[in-house]
């Protein structure tokens, strides 16, 4: 039943490896940039706040595929030579996902009241100690479920690198399908693999959400 | 001793504190009351160095808060503060909430800090809640933990900002009792509250604030029965129904 | 490498027309898929709160399945594997349909988005208190009447803001239909690149068209929200 999958298992899983690499790079960059974007979104300085807000609202209104194409077209112009599609895709994902992560961080930062910070200060904790033992742990616990959910979405989004010919998981399945015409099992298999990872991820997210609710952190 | 000398503070164009003068001696309890928005919380925050002020001076035991050489973090160690909404750390157990600052700031050992924390929990009447998370406690219990958390730093002064106004009526007394005990043991306290029963029992001085000014001060029954200022009279008649 | 910008690809014929045609296809896919998504989503979301365990299970299985697989994979599955699933004769017949990719895109996007609508419905129901249900039943309504006349309309209004976001998302997601050759907006901007090598200008133009589309949708939904909002609620 899964004959074509079995025959091409190594090739397919190689593509899955690329998908994982893409995801890892997109998450590392997207979360890092997202933290900064989140800070920009709560900035009182309008020279910071307004450009960042414009960037977030602009990107969030545009399909990811188009962002991927755009960078695919713009990178050679900036770099002066055709760029590796992997790098081009990673840059698009970082720019795109950072706006979503940024909103999660903004909400996390805003969930902490000024009085809580004052309470920490009033016991004599320094700025760094307050950040380390109070602010960051609380914000992190509050954001964790959303961060995991958005990471799952990012993982799924990387499949769109397909459109610039990057040989990730879906692209490899389609290559095999073109040769062997076994669409049901090939796309079925890809679907199952994605499902397993995303399903587990969503349960982990749910676990942290329930834990947060139980301890009253959320 | 805390001396407040001609302190004024602005938020942008808006003047919150207008030329405040006040002195709190060691061992005294001062109660501040006044309508919403009159600047009571702001004054407390200034005393703890949590907010800057633009004019005048606040001097705690001879050290001026506005002096750049003053180490505010060091100074805050001897001034505890309790907030209206408790502001416990929700991700830590009660015990952790109390031991955090003693361990990180005073570098006490875990054992030492926990021993002290348990004593304090005993004192505020909830030793059995040491391993609970704040969310599982009633409001009154949370506020008592917050008081214990401040006391763990062995402060010389305690500031209370409407500590009972977020509590259900049946829980107010359990918190006030703790505060009365503290006052009687000689803690120096500044308390923003509208609990006039508490003020009558322990206050050495009561001040009434309105629109950023102290417009009336008193030290005895006279303040309640025969206030000089019309605003005070009106305000007291509203809260002393 | 010096790059000579040529923004005229945005209006020069036939390219300007292509973008407009693409936009029209994007709008059609979005709207038609939304009709499927909303009606199916409401039904599946409501199944979550029925007293029958089997239906609840089906509903949660549906949402789990669709949201844990990338839409691109779902689309490929329906488009390439779908006809095979129908068997040789019927599949062959289906493959002859003109513009099959367009219909598959609408179908796939519709049932995918339905799972997201259903999830919002579930959250909406969850935010209605138990006592509300009891209050309705105490007026003598049947279970069915209760859902039909009170609970579902109420839940729908509660979830209007997230539904607005979903509606915006459906237009963005419709761009993925280009991968099966549907000539919507993103496809057209890519096609301009293939002919003129001015993909940068074409995609930039397309970005602004999507932005405009999004802003228009927000306007319309804002109007609808203000019409249906319950005084003292929503409008956060
Ligand atoms: N960070 C701030 N920026 C601008 N204005 C502020 C800020 N904090 C407080 N204010 C204003 O300063 C005034 C005094 O506030 P404060 O909180 O000190 O009043 P309060 O006497 O404690 O009132 P309440 O009884 O409501 O707690 C209010 O009008 C308030 O709006
Ligand atoms: Mg106040």
Description:
The complex is a heterotrimer of chains A (218), B (241) and C (236). By secondary structure, chain A is mostly helical. Chain A has a single domain, classed as MetI-like (MetI-like fold), CATH 1.10.3720. In chain B, the strands form two sheets. A six-stranded mixed sheet of chain B has the order 6-7-8-3-9-10, with helices on both faces. In chain B, strands 2-1-4-5 form a four-stranded antiparallel sheet, covered by helices on one side. Chain C has a domain of 151 residues: MetI-like fold, CATH 1.10.3720.10. The radius of gyration of chain C is 21 Å and the shape is flat. The interface between A and C is large, with 38 and 40 residues. The structure holds adenosine-5'-triphosphate and magnesium ion (MG). Magnesium ion (MG) binds next to helix 1 of chain B.
Number of helices of chain C: 10
Distance between the termini of chain B: 35 Å
User: Unreliable segments of chain C (pLDDT under 50, ≥5 consecutive)?
Assistant: none
**CATH class membership of one domain in chain C:** Mainly Alpha
Radius of gyration of chain C, rounded?
Answer: 21 Å
As for the CATH topology of one domain in chain C, it is: MetI-like fold
- Strand tally of chain B is 10
Described by the principal axes of the CA atoms, the overall outline of chain B is globular
* pLDDT < 50 runs, ≥5 residues of chain B: none
Strand-helix topology:
The complex is a heterotrimer of chains A (218), B (241) and C (236).
Chain A: H1 3-7, H2 9-41, H3 46-60, H4 64-79, H5 85-110, H6 114-122, H7 127-157, H8 169-180, H9 183-215
Helix pairs in contact in A: 2-5, 2-8, 3-5, 4-5, 5-7, 7-9, 8-9
Chain B: E1 2-11, E2 14-24, E3 29-33, H1 40-47, E4 55-60, E5 63-64, H2 72-76, E6 79-82, H3 94-104, H4 110-124, H5 139-151, E7 157-161, H6 169-184, E8 188-192, H7 196-202, E9 205-210, E10 213-218, H8 221-225, H9 230-239
Chain C: H1 15-47, H2 53-67, H3 71-85, H4 88-95, H5 100-126, H6 130-137, H7 143-158, H8 160-173, H9 185-196, H10 199-228
Helix pairs in contact in C: 1-2, 1-5, 1-9, 2-5, 3-4, 3-5, 5-8, 8-10, 9-10
């Amino acid at each position: 039943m899964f004959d074509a999958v079995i025959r091409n298992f190594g090739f397919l899983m190689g593509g899955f490896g690329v998908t994982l690499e893409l995801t890892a790079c997109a998450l590392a960059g997207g979360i890092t940039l997202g933290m900064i974007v989140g800070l920009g979104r709560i900035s009182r300085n309008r020279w910071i706040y307004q450009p960042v807000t414009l960037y977030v609202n602009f990107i969030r209104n545009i399909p990811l595929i188009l962002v991927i194409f755009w960078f695919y077209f713009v990178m050679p112009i900036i770099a002066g030579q055709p760029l590796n599609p992997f790098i081009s895709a990673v840059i698009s994902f970082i720019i795109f996902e950072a706006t979503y992560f940024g909103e999660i961080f903004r909400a996390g930062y805003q969930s902490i009241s000024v009085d809580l910070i004052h309470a920490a200060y009033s016991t004599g904790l320094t700025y760094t100690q307050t950040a380390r033992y109070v602010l960051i742990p609380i914000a992190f616990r509050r954001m964790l479920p959303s961060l995991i959910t958005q990471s799952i979405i990012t993982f799924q989004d990387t499949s769109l690198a397909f459109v610039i010919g990057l040989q990730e998981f879906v692209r490899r399945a389609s290559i095999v399908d073109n040769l062997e015409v076994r669409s049901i099992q090939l796309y079925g298999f890809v679907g199952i693999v994605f499902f397993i990872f995303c399903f587990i991820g969503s349960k982990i997210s749910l676990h942290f959400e329930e834990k947060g609710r139980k301890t009253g952190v959320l | 001793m805390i001396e407040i000398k001609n302190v004024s503070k602005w938020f942008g164009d808006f003047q919150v504190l207008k030329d405040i003068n006040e002195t709190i001696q060691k061992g005294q309890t001062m109660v501040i009351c006044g309508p919403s928005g009159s600047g009571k919380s702001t004054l407390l925050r200034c005393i703890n160095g949590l907010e800057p002020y633009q004019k005048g001076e606040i001097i705690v035991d001879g050290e001026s808060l506005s002096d750049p050489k003053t180490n505010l973090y060091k100074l805050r160690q001897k001034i505890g503060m309790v907030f209206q909404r408790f502001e416990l750390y929700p991700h830590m157990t009660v015990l952790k909430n109390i031991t955090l600052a003693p361990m990180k700031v005073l570098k006490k050992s875990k054992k030492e800090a926990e021993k002290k924390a348990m004593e304090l929990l005993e004192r505020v009447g909830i030793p059995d809640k040491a391993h609970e998370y704040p969310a599982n406690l009633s409001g009154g219990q949370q506020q008592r933990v917050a008081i214990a958390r401040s006391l763990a730093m062995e402060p010389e002064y305690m500031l209370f900002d409407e500590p009972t106004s977020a509590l259900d009526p049946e829980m107010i007394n359990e918190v006030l009792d703790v505060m009365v005990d503290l006052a009687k043991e000689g803690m120096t306290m500044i308390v923003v509250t509208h609990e006039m029963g508490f003020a009558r029992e322990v206050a050495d001085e009561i001040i009434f604030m309105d629109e950023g000014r102290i417009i009336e001060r008193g030290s005895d029954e006279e303040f309640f029965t025969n206030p000089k200022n019309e605003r005070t009279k009106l305000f007291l008649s509203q809260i002393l129904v | 490498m010096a790059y000579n910008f040529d923004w005229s690809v945005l209006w020069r014929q036939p390219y300007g027309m292509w973008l407009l045609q693409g936009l029209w296809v994007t709008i059609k896919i979005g709207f038609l898929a939304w009709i499927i998504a909303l009606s199916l989503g409401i039904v599946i979301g409501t199944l979550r709160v029925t007293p029958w365990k089997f239906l609840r299970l089906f509903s949660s299985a549906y949402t789990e399945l669709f949201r844990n697989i990338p839409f691109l994979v779902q689309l490929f599955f329906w488009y390439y594997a779908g006809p095979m699933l129908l068997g040789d004769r019927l599949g062959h017949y289906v493959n002859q349909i003109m513009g099959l990719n367009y219909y598959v895109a609408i179908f796939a996007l519709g049932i995918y988005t339905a799972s997201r609508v259903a999830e919002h419905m579930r959250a909406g129901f969850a935010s209605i208190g138990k006592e509300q249900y009891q209050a309705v039943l105490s007026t003598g309504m049947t279970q069915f009447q209760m859902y039909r006349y009170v609970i579902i309309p109420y839940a729908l209004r509660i979830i209007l803001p997230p539904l607005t976001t979903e509606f915006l998302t459906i237009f963005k997601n419709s761009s993925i239909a280009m991968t099966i050759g549907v000539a919507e907006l993103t496809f057209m901007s890519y096609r301009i690149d293939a002919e003129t090598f001015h993909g940068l200008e074409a995609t930039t133009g397309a970005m602004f068209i999507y932005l405009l589309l999004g802003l228009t949708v927000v306007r319309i939904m804002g109007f609808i929200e203000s019409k249906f909002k319950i005084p003292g609620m929503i409008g956060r």
